[in-house]
Amino acid sequence: MTEPSDDKDLLLIASSGGHLAQLMNLEPWWRGYRRQWVTFDLPDTRARLAGEDVVPAYHPTTRNAKNLVRNTGLAIRMLQRRRPDAIISTGAAVAVPFFLMGKLLGIPRIYIEVYDRFDTPTLTGRICSHLSSVFCVQLEDQLRMYPKATVIGPLL
Question: Which pTM does this prediction carry?
Answer without folding.
Answer: 0.93
